[in-house]
Amino acid sequence: MTGTLPFRAVYHTPDVYDRVLLPHWFDGAEDTGHVRALMHRCYGPAPASGRMRILELGCGTGRVTAALAPYASSLHGVDSGAPMLDVFRTRYPLATTQLADIAAAVECLHADGERFDIVGAFWSLSYPIGDCFEDLTTDGIRPRPDLAAGVADAKVLVRKIVDLLAHGGHLIALFFDSDAPEQRVVTRAWERIAPFPGTGRGFGRETLLAALRDAEEDGLGRLTHFRTGGLSVAPDPPTAIDWFTIVHLKSMPALVDDPDIRAEIEAFVHQHTIDDGRVLLPTGMHLIDFWRTPRTSHLPNDSAGTRGVDP
């Protein structure tokens, strides 16, 4: 992709997201395949007519939504990018949509007493959680002075998301692995502007999991979490470089114009280019499932629980 794109164009400029997005493969299946498999384990094959109320936070263009939509009697998509929602509505014309950031949408839905059988958040929760710790603009990063207050705000947000689940409902989230080689390149680039809060770039995921463990300990449900390694696959080096600069670095001038950052990205891409010209970038995925169910559902033959994923 040629030319200079504005900051965060990947989310707010028509067609950019779908053009630069790379497929992610984990054990022979894309990320969408893992979500589809989880839905199958929880609820069986997709029915002829869906019966669930489904909410997707950060729905984007509806790529991962395809794994949820067959189960839906109603589908509500939330995103802060108007071009994203335009595509989403084209793909799912019966869905309702909300142009808002995730935190604002959750606050609104929570205040209205809404409940959903499925809440999906695929690669999207890092943004509202990160916003609790720092402000990101084209001018740079401004950390919040009180990290503990930010953690508390993030945990309140997560608890409100859990509260949106109906009895027996699932929160299903995908989160990037900050320790994977691809993401370590990204981390080093962003750290030229400001250090990441807390324990580093994985702090948002750690905060999410801590909040869900708190919910589990409070008897609100059961948390399942696993991590798997995989590959982001680009057809050629220029596409891989666009993936880094447009998606990971969000076209921020201070980063994409830095010759040292550019050199590290190009070296990493070259290192992972194979003989047929494709670029195989080592990555990783965390799949998080919170099942809203009473503690007694762990017991055999519990009639109060709803069938869920085997622990």
From TrEMBL:
Any GO BP: methylation
Record bears the keyword S-adenosyl-L-methionine:
yes
Q: Which residues form a coiled coil?
A: none
Q: Methyltransferase domain: which residues? A: 54-127
Q: List the keywords (alphabetical).
A: Methyltransferase, S-adenosyl-L-methionine, Transferase
Is the keyword S-adenosyl-L-methionine assigned to this protein? Answer: yes
What name is this protein filed under? SAM-dependent methyltransferase
Superkingdom: Bacteria
| Organism classification | Bacteria, Bacillati, Actinomycetota, Actinomycetes, Jiangellales
A single GO molecular function term of this UniProt record: methyltransferase activity
**Species assigned in the record:** Jiangella mangrovi
